Amino acid sequence: MSTHTLAVLAENKPGVLSHIAGLFSRRAFNISSLAVGPTQDERVSRFTIVVDGASTPVDQVCKQLEKLVRVLKVVELSEGGAVERELALIKVRVDPAVRGQLLEVAGVFGASVVDMSPTTLVLEAVSSPAKLDALLAMLDSYGTCELVRTGRIALARGAGVITDDGPASTAFPEPAETAA
Prior knowledge:
Structural class: alpha+beta
Number of domains: 2
Mean pLDDT: 89
CATH class of the largest domain: Alpha Beta
Number of strands: 11
CATH topology of the largest domain: Alpha-Beta Plaits
Distance between the termini: 51 Å
CATH architecture of the largest domain: 2-Layer Sandwich
Largest sheet: 5 strands, antiparallel
């Protein structure tokens, strides 16, 4: 599946999420992942929206989003040009005889045990979506009882930042080289 990650800056006002979700609904575009949170400016929220590029005309989505009154900026983050992370909480059935194996698998993937009962473990994993998928595949044989994923968040790599005042810019210039 070809996915596209959009970074959207919007006014931090009631109803903005509803307007954005409504646009996707009216156009019959599917959202694969949606994460919303505040930015360093309390007046602005940042949406990370992941859409399936095969079934959704991404250029059209961007143009339609930019037309919304409360949307300040829309940027498509290039694949490989962004750091992407997702949080998952995973409840796994565990037989005491294989608890050590399960903990070893969790450790390899950087997952932490956040809750334990005699028959289950709850793991917390923060990583790229692909690495989370690999962890879930490994845990399948143990018996995943319950799973919740936050949805993808992403930031462009490098010094460029996305602000609502013009194109993506470099807010923090690279240090100048000094002559020795």
